């Protein structure tokens, strides 16, 4: 999410059998329109190189990432105290 918040283009390779990376993280990044997901087992050097060139040549337009998480958490905790 740091790359998404910073508006940087990126490629990511989720671990094959890692549930969180393949479902939760991927779904979240797709919601933000961020990153390019690639399958490591199927990624040949030429495909990776082409994807890098493609990502570096585009201007990312991601949904904004909220940056007030600590404030929101403090407010919720304060309500309980």
Considering the chains and any ligands shown, give keywords for the structure.
single chain, 81 residues, mainly alpha, two-stranded parallel ribbon, 4 helices, elongated
Write up this protein.
The chain has 81 residues and is mainly α. Helix content is 52%, strand content 5%. The protein has four helices and two strands. It has helices spanning 2-5, 19-32, 45-56, 69-80, and strands at residues 11-12, 36-37. The protein has a two-stranded parallel sheet with strand order 1-2.
Quick description:
With 81 residues, the chain is mainly alpha-helical. The chain has helices spanning 2-5, 19-32, 45-56, 69-80; strands at 11-12, 36-37.
**In percent terms, what proportion of residues is strand?**
under 5%
Secondary-structure content class: mainly alpha
Note poorly predicted spans.
none
Average pLDDT, all residues: 93
What kind of oligomer do you see? single chain
Radius of gyration: 16 Å
Level of helix content?
40-55%
**Major β-sheet annotation:** 2 strands, parallel
Secondary-structure element order, N to C: HEHEHH
Extended strand count: 2
Topology readout:
Blueprint (H helix, E strand, L loop, with lengths): L1 H4 L5 E2 L6 H14 L3 E2 L7 H12 L12 H12 L1
Parallel strand pairs: 1-2
């Amino acid at each position: 999410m740091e790359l998404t918040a910073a508006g940087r283009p990126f490629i990511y390779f989720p671990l094959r059998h890692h549930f969180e990376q393949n479902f939760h993280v991927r779904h979240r990044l797709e919601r933000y329109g961020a990153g390019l997901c690639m399958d490591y087992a199927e990624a040949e050097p030429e495909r990776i190189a082409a994807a890098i060139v493609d990502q570096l040549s585009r201007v990312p337009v991601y949904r904004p990432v909220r940056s007030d998480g600590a404030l929101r958490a403090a407010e919720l905790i304060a309500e309980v105290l």
